[in-house]
């Protein structure tokens, strides 16, 4: 029974590896996606702040509400971005 447990622990310690020649493309696609999501979150945040300011200055209640909703969506998107990255890193592993 102990030999089987030791074998299972050794098998669980194996990290996934990309096929030869694919790692470069996987890293490039991952970096593009990360940069793209970061750019979209930045644009969304500044557009939402602008909408919030415009709604408050012009006393337009719907504009201010849309701006605040946009900021909250940006915050939730940023949280999902970080959590998603951590999930992928835990699956792929580092330093194996």
Can I get a quick summary?
The protein is mainly α and 96 residues long.
Report on the structure:
The chain is 81% helix and 0% strand. The chain is elongated, with a radius of gyration of 22 Å. It has helices at 2-12, 23-57, 61-92. With 96 residues, the chain is mostly helical. It has three helices and no strands.
Q: Proportion of β residues?
A: under 5%
Structural class: mainly alpha
Shape: elongated
Quaternary organization: single chain
Number of distinct helices: 3
What's the average pLDDT? Answer: 83
Radius of gyration: 22 Å
Give unreliable regions as ranges. none
**End-to-end C-alpha gap:** 27 Å
Roughly how much helix do the residues carry, as a percent range? over 70%
The major beta sheet can be summarized as: none
State the order of secondary-structure elements, H for helix, E for strand.
HHH
Number of strands: 0
Key structural traits:
96 residues; mainly alpha; 81% helix
Question: How are the secondary structure elements laid out?
Answer:
Blueprint: H1 2-12, H2 23-57, H3 61-92
Helix pairs in contact: 2-3
């Amino acid at each position: 029974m102990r030999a089987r447990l030791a074998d299972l622990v050794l098998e669980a310690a194996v990290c996934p590896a990309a096929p030869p020649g694919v790692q470069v493309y996987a890293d490039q696609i991952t970096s593009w996606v990360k940069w793209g999501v970061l750019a979209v979150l930045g644009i969304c945040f500044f557009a939402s702040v602008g909408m919030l300011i415009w709604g408050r200055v012009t006393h337009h209640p719907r504009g201010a509400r849309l701006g605040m909703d946009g900021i909250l969506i940006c915050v939730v998107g940023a949280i999902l971005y970080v959590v998603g990255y951590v999930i992928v890193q835990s699956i792929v592993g580092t330093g194996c």
